[in-house]
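Lab meeting, action items carried over

1. Structure of the two-component assembly. Owner: GW. Status: complete.
Input record:
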Amino acid sequence: MSILIDILLAIIMVYLAIQCLLTPRLIQSVFLFFAFGLGLALAWVRLGAIDVAITEAAIAAGFLGVLFLDALKSFAPKVSVKQDNLEDIYKLPRRNIKSLILPRVILVLGLALFLFIALEAVWMIPDGGGLTASAEALLPQSGVEHPVTAVLLNFRAYDTWLEIGVILLGLLGVFVAGGIKLYKKPGASKPDPMLRQVILFVTPVLFLFGAFLLYIGKTGPGGAFQAAVLWGAIGILLHLGGKPIFAMIPRWLFHLILTMGLGFFLVLGFLLIADGRTLFEYPPAYAGLLILIIETLGAISIAAALTAIYANLNQMEEETNEVEPTT
Amino acid sequence: MIHLPSSPFPALLVGLPILMATLSLFFRPGGKAAVGLMGSILTAGLALIAFVEVTQRGTVIHILGGWEPPLGILLRMDSLAAVFIGMTAIVGVFISLYAWGYFRAQETSAEGLPLFWPLWLFLWAGLNGLFLSNDLFNLFVTIEVIGISAVSLAVLTGKTPALFAGLRYLLAAITGSMAYLFGVSLLYGSTGTLDLGLLGEVLEPGPTTSFSLLVITLGLMIKMAGFPFHFWLPPAHSSAPAPVSALLSALVVKGAFYILLRLWMEVFGVSLTYAAGQLIGLAGAIAVIWGSWQALIQTSFKLIVAHSSVAQLGYLLMVFPLLILAPGVSADSADWLSPAWTAGIYQVIAHAFAKASFFLSAGLIIMALGHDRIESLRDLVGNMRITALAIGIAGVSLIGLPPSGGFMAKWMLLKGIFLSGQWWWAPVVLMGSLLTAGYVFMLLRLAFAPAREMNTFRPVPKSLEIIALMLALGSFLIVFPADSLIQFLESSGVFGSGIESIIEGGVYGND
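Predicted assembly:
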């Protein structure tokens, strides 16, 4: 029975992926992408990786969805959003179809060959066993009870620390490519009573649920990244409701919030080195407490980075729309 | 490996630049530059201390979190890593000094420009982390850090051509990362370990291993702009600000080459065939000819230099066929391994110095003229003597004339080629040098030509010219410690070893 579910899921996923690429309207592509993300989350559930499933659903269908819809909004005034029209707008050269037949045949044959050897490679994979057993064996010394959290924040904390840096780098990249618009207060937005009520109701729920996911990470699926997406959603909602938090607080405070996850992790590591240990080698007695602090600060930092990415992009659009009035 | 002496330096080499990058975010633009420059000097100093430690204690390790591999991650600083880290430190600190003066002399200040400093320090941390890493997944994380900071640096000016080139660079970099990650997941699934040392011991030949080799190699080829995946490099490197172009061409692409070299030597030995080496060598040979030819027909200085990078990286790929031994040849009897390794290492270092000098000179020319079309280079010697000298010296090293580091690399490559009997690579090396001489002498001819009309060269800071000249001289000075450097490299790590391949096998590997 379960094999049938898996096969069905696989077929649906491939179908959604192809549709997502081929559909003519961008808005449909975006919603098909959400569906694909949720399908992927289900696939992770079927594989027993609940942590990954939660993250996948939160990032792919949640955060990316907000960014995509926001990006679509900036196309909207200019065209009815069809990919064909976009090609006209951006003057993409339309090549003669006939001249492309041979390259396409070669491309398809090449992809088919690649797919074939990829399938062979995956099919014939020897069972290496993985590291689950040794992670379980060392779990009591890690300070937490959930193996995934132990791997992410203790056994391989170095990778996680660098990944928190990657998220900060993503924000810096957005700043560089689009200019730093974050600190400008947006124009007086019209008060929307419905939105206000929604924010008043949803914000505390999101906060509590995020905190729950963060704390439960110690013993079960959940943790900093999942909590960060929910807390980031609070920031985005507040921004939409006319309360751009990063324009309202002093800059040093914003930078502190943004970097404290990465910074605390690193300073702690340096102190441990000064104590004669290695980087991120927590004293076993304090490991649980230190991991909880790192996760909390990390979640706040990641949430701040996600909110800032959204807010910066959103402000950029407002500016372009002001410069070019809608036609 | 875990019985080697432990040292805190590997962890500090990654941690310190990130600490300084984080600190610099708190400052206003002027302060960002000061903290950034201080961070660069501290990181370079730390790298040199660590280098000296490796020369005295041999390979040192740092077991992160105290968890031994395969569960934990181990940083390993052997002589090969030490040489790459030392090269990054010297070239990096010169580029930092240049960037300090260069960004201050800029009249138009894009908002993002001061973010150069945190991004560059993150990039440096990523490079150090990559050279030190001994773990397949950790290598993926370091190439992510490098990739995202490199793309952000490439679009630093925020201008439209840079954004176009940057987007293409980002897509190429992500494709490369995904291909690499696919291979890593297959290897982890089939062996249950990510540690390079353990993988080399337990990996068995088979379709899964061969396929991992294929996708990992393809991914890294995209990252290092190996032919035919070089399309993203010239626009991205030429549209970035000068110090960034120098960083990208001199250091960033070498990271992917380093991983490729490590993985082929230490992990994939069981799956490599003689044909695989010939194939990657062929890609390198085409890159040498094609890149040099493209450089010859460009009309803007930065595009010439960027296409020249494609060609010079091709020489690095041509080292691989010499490292894979034909069936029946043992590593002890192969006397061409040492020249081939020397050629590879010297090509990396000499190109880093010469290419950084070239791009920094290009930045000065743009500063003086407002553009970099080569017909305006006339009478460069009369107006910017030091820059012209730097271009000449760095050019000589790129061509490979004695007594430069480039000469050392190409001479050793030819020696390795003839000793191994793979004579068919020799014409490519000679042809590449001839074409390189073509575009370098074209630039020099223009620089010496009398001015047709009054070119208005605005004055540029002399200190910046001297930095470009010192990097060019560096590509000569590296020849002097050659003996002790080779001795040091041979003392530990993979330097000088070869891969004994088996010829029988399936379509793309030995099943």
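2. GW to write a short summary for the group page. Key points so far: The CA atoms of residues 58 and 229 of chain A lie 6 Å apart. Chain A has two domains: 1-94, 147-327.
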